[in-house]
Each structure stands twice: as structure tokens, then as C-alpha cells.
Amino acid sequence: MNAPLLEVTDLAKHYPVRKGLILARQVGTVRAVDGVSFTLNRGETLALVGESGCGKSTTARLVLRLIEPSAGSLRFDGRDITGISGSALRAMRRRMQIVFQDPYASLNPRLTVAETIAEPMQVHGIGDAASRRARVAELLGLVGLRAFHAERYPHEFSGGQRQRIGIARALSVQPDLVVCDEPVSALDVSIQAQVVNLLKDLQRRFGLAYLFIAHDLAVVKHVADRVAVMYLGSIVETASKRDLFATPRHPYTRALLAAIPHPDPTRRGRVKPLGGDVPSPMNVPPGCRFHTRCPFAQDRCRKEEPVLRQLADGHAAACHVAESLPPAGLDFSGGLAPAAAMRLALYARARDAAA
Amino acid sequence: MSAATETSEPIAPPRPGILARLLREPAAAVSLILVVLIIAAAVLAPVLAPTDPYDNDLSLAMQPPGSPGLPLGADAQGRDMVTRLLYGLRVSLLMGFAAVALGGSLGALLGFLAAFYHRWLDGPIMRLVDILLSFPAILVGLAIAAIFGPGIFSVVLALSVATVPLMARIVRGSAMVVMRLDFIEAARATGMTDARLIWRHLAPNCLSSIFVFATLRFGQVILLGSALSFLGLGAQPPTPELGAMASEGRNFLFFAPHIAVVPCIVIFIVVLAFNVLGDALRDALDPRLRV
Predict the structure, then answer these.
(1) Stated pTM of the model
(2) Domain limits for position A124
(3) CATH number for the domain including A105?
(4) In-domain check, residue A17
(5) CA of B196 vs chain A CAs: smallest distance (Å)
(6) Residue A171: inside a domain, yes or no?
(7) Is B9 at the interface with chain A, CB within 8 A?
(8) What is the tens place of the pLDDT at every residue in B5-61?
(9) 20 to 30 A Cα–Cα from A15, which one of A191, A193, A251, B223?
């Protein structure tokens, strides 16, 4: 029972780039995901964060076996699922589901809500028509919709409601693992909070494990137990949420955290944005893949690829100089500078007094 | 509204059925009635027709419409136009339906397979389609008539073969767009079989383009079938067929224009009615356009 639910080892997805019409020869490789390892326990949320194009969504699809890995292995509940196919794979799909980013594209416009939610149960032969109908009503209630919504079509709902329908569909077969591929980034902020809280609530009730893909660190801070930071197809740092936000050990993580908008005007000018662009995954830099943009890069970083190594309990980073980095110098925990905090407290007191 | 009704579950208003939605549009209602009448006329031709389609009376040849006992006149052989048209409608409709259904479903299947198994089947299927496209329908018709002999069967076969590549291309195009949408991936993630995925998720979302093309093609097929008949590959005289009747009448265009014009008008009405109905049906079947 203490074994992790999901164990990912050295997972990679390389896409060959071919050129030429008749005799296509391979001119390069896009290393979308390049040796990713992590574990996920039951009932836990692991957030996978990183910039656009860093391989987060590819990793999610690899985990679900929606695309085939080029290398590496996947173990789910102690069983190797890297090579299974056919009916074994279909049976396995019952235990892992996905919630998509775009609530407008993720529901079949030709099926009613009831048909959409009941379909996974039908596919896996769970219950009869009547019990499935009852279960659909129950699921709709769970995600905060009403039973009469069952006969409607997706276009009759708002983005947030559709995302709830997508969540209900994922939960219909009682999975152990739900991959959430940026489930709230297409929703506006007030709805984001509702959906995130719904996901957390459902996790508590059903002991779900989430692989939560995100680029919004504020959301991550709210939902995650552990965080893995990805850069250019590989993980550069993993830590518990608290450790990561308090003491980031990788320069890239620091840059990401420093880029969070902060309600403190005195920070302006103290935060130096990261220069340069993400290198192309077709042309990954030798050595540390972050050295082209890293303010602390040394000769060693240009030659030798750092491995993800344990720096503290449950805190690992792939950086040669992690120990010798200067103190981060910024408070990433979302706090305010003392002066600003005092001023806000003053406003609050004044408002209370007036009320 | 009392508190009791507020707390009870609101009841969704009953949704209008497909027929009700179809009839809301006046043009659709008219075309539906027309199509029903056309099909009824074709099916009931032996009952409705005043005479036998092969009965000729040369003394009545080329009688204009409105002559006693001949509301639409008689053709060059003195056969009643009404009878000929009713029987001709049978042959033409059968030809159109059979060719579109046969060629269209095979073409749609190829299109779905090419889009769904893009990696393995797209190349082979689409090259096959290109080969089929490079033969003009008339040439295919000639070849098939040479093998099976001229007749309705050959025409239907030739027109089906000519419809396959067109439908395959159209379906592949719209299926490739649908394949990129997340709900296909969601369906795959539930672990359903490929057949179910294609049937329930891919095909219904390509329905609009299939409908539009099938109805357009229905009209084209009737006209093409007439052309083949005209070349002597299709319906053989004296079999009544709308296209063949029109081409026979063309010799008498100056003396008795009704022999050619009346079948043409019938073809026009049939094609138009089916096109309008097809469009309306496409809209009625799309849940997004429901009110």
C-alpha cells in the first residue's frame, strides 16, 4: 500500500524530423520529453509546472498511454504498463482519466451531458442503463450541477460548467488517478477558484491522485502537495510545495517564482527577469540545458549535464551549483514588504473603525 | 411563484423533435412535402399512370400539353408524357439513391479510415482516391458498360465508383479537423474500441459535410446518369428515364419543345427539393443549432 500509485522512470518522447519528399531522411529530433522520472502516491497531488512547450502536456499524455513513449517505463499500481496493449490497456484506462484544458473542445457537441458522462461506464460495462442514469444524476450533483442538466447539450453551458461536466465524466468510472491538463487556465479567475476547490474537495472524498499540469503558480500553490518544475523536456527540481516556494534550489525555479506578479511596489526593480528564450527542443544545449539563460552558469555547466540529486529530504534539483547559490534574496511566499504590510493593516483598521 | 415550486427541480422544457424543427423553416417544409410527393409518385407509378409507358399511338405523336387526354402532351412516339415521367422518375430516383448510398458510404468509410489511422492508411487510401479521381465518370461508365453490358446496373455501378473518391476526400478533410479536438482524445482515454470511437464521436461530427455533399451529389448523379443514358450506356430505349427522355426530345426542340423541356423541369424540381431538404436536415440534426 505504501508503494507509489504511479512510478515514471526516464520517460522520453522524441519526434523525428524528416526532410525530403521521396527519400525522407531524418534531419533532427525534437526531444519533447527527455528523461522524466517521478512518483505519485495515492491521494496526492503532484503539480507539473513549466513554460509553454516544456513538455508538460506530452508527459501527461505519455502517462495515460495516449501517445507511445520513445523510452522509459511506467508503473501503475505496481504493474508495468509501458508495453501493454489491446484489452489490457483498455481495462487499465478505467483507472486513469483526464480532464482537459479547453472545456469547449473536450466535450462531443453531438452527445447530451448524460450520454457523455455515462459513456465511460458503458464502455467498461459498469451497471445497467437505469443504474447509470442514477449515477449520472449523482455525479452531476457532486460537481455542482443539477440533475435536469443531463438532457442538455454542451453548447448550452458556460466554460466553468463544461469543465464540471468534464470532471464528472472523468470520475464516472471511479479512477485512482486523474491527470488534470491545465484544467483551469482557460477559465476566468472567479471560476478558476470554484473549479480548483471542487477538484480538492473531490480528492478528499474519493482519495484521488492528481497529476496536475499548470503554468499558473498561484493555482499550483493552492492545490499541490508536491511540485515538479520542468524545463525543456526534463525535470529540474522537485520538492514539497512548502519547500519549493520557501527555498527554491534551482536558478530556473527562482526565476519562475520571481516572475509571479506581486502586490508589492517596492519589489519593482529588484526582480530581474530571465533573459533570452527557451532553446528549441530540436537543439537542446549540451551540459545543463538551462546554462544558456542561467545567471550562475560556469564552465562545468556547459559541459556536464547535471542529474537530479537529493539536496534535502524530498527536495531534489538538477544543478551543479545548487549549494553555492546566493540566498534567493526575495520572499517568494507571497508576503509583502514590511512597510507595505503596515500600510495595508492601517487601511484595514481605518475601514473597521468606519464600519 | 411560491416557495414550493422554487425548491423543486426545474423541469427542462420539452425539446422539439427533429420533424418539428425541420418544419419550422418554410423552405424546408415545402421541400419535405415535395420530396414525399416525388417519392410517392415514383413508388405508385403503376397505380397513378393513366396508360402503359410503352403504349404508343403514332397518331398522337408530339401532341402539345393540354391535348385531350394528354395533360403534358405526348412524345415523338406518341406515348403519354405523364406516364413516361412517372416511370422515368422511378428509374432516375433509384439510380440517384443507389449511387449516392453505395458510393457515398464506401467513400465515407475510406475517409474515416484515412483520417483515423492517418499514419498508416492515409497515404494508400488517398493515392487510391487520386487514381479514381483521374478517371472521368463517363470513362468509368464506358468500361463498366463494356464488362456488364449497358443498363441501369452499369450506370449505378459507374456513378458509385465516381462518387467514392469525392466523398472520401470530403469526409477525410472534415474528419481530420475533428480528430484534432480534445473530445476524441477524451474518448480514447476512456478505453473504448476504435470502431465505437469512429461511430459515436468521429462520424456524427462530420455529418454536416456528408449531408451537404450527398444531396449535392444526388442531383449531379441524376444528371450524370442522364448523360450516360444519352450515350447509350444507361437506360436503353424504350425504358423511360428522365435524362434519356430529355435527350430524345432534343431532336424536336423546335417543333415540340415540351418533349425535352418537361423532363428537364422535373429533374430541376427533384434536384432542388432534395438539396433544400438536405440542407434543412443537416441543420435539424445539429444539436448546436437547436433553440
Answers:
(1) 0.80
(2) 6-229
(3) 3.40.50.300
(4) yes
(5) 9
(6) yes
(7) yes
(8) 444 555 555 666 777 777 778 888 888 899 999 999 888 888 887 778 787 777 777
(9) A251
